[in-house]
Specification:
Peptide-binding protein; five-stranded mixed β-sheet; 22% strand; SMAD_FHA_dom_sf; alpha+beta; Cell_Proc_Reg/RNA_Proc; phosphoprotein; DUF1707_SHOCT-like; Tumour Suppressor Smad4
């Protein structure tokens, strides 16, 4: 015979804090791509309906996050990687030939390409006949790709349409690269 003062053999109910931790684990799993959107939504519903801690554990066991040490190491590797990329860009920028920006008073854009009629003629097979133009608009320099085959890039990013450029930016037309300069 059992007494009414004995403890229940059923586990304790799930607390709000436990639900929040489970939901945070699901959000993190979805953010890093471990869960699809549909799986995330389904598991979220199950977390909110869970009555026992073991049900929550079953929903988040495959989403174990890295411990503190792992996060520190991965964060350090990310920081070093970012630094090396900045260092590489700075090293390359100093070695690139200068491309002098035209006088701000110039009424005409500087056309760049293989065609002899361009203001800057680049005889390279990756440069289109009429590749790009550089002009002063509203107090800023604008570099516009003119439908080139091999593209125009500013600081390593491909230009689709136009991009604002300034002194010190690295620009490339096909595989010909330069560093913009005012002097």
């Amino acid at each position: 015979m059992t007494s009414s003062f004995e403890f229940s053999t059923y586990p304790a109910r799930v607390t709000d804090a436990e639900r929040d931790r489970a939901l945070d684990a699901l959000k993190e799993g979805a953010a890093v791509g471990r869960l699809s959107h549909d799986t995330f939504l389904r598991r979220m519903e199950l977390v909110l309906a869970a009555r026992r801690p073991d049900e929550l554990a079953a929903l988040t066991d495959d989403l174990r996050t890295e411990n503190r040490w792992s996060r520190m190491v991965l964060g350090g590797v990310g920081a070093v990687s970012g630094f090396t990329m900045k260092l590489r860009r700075a090293w390359q920028a100093e070695r690139l030939p200068k491309l002098l920006l035209p006088s701000p008073d110039s009424a005409f854009p500087l056309r760049i390409g293989r065609d002899p009629a361009n203001g800057l003629r680049l005889s390279h097979d990756t440069v289109s006949r009429v590749h790009a133009e550089l002009r002063r608009q509203g107090g800023v320099w604008v570099l516009r790709d003119l439908g080139s085959t091999n593209g125009t890039s500013v600081n390593g990013r491909r230009v689709t349409g136009a991009a604002i450029v300034q002194d010190g930016d690295s620009v490339s037309f096909g595989r010909m690269a330069f560093r913009l300069s005012t002097n």
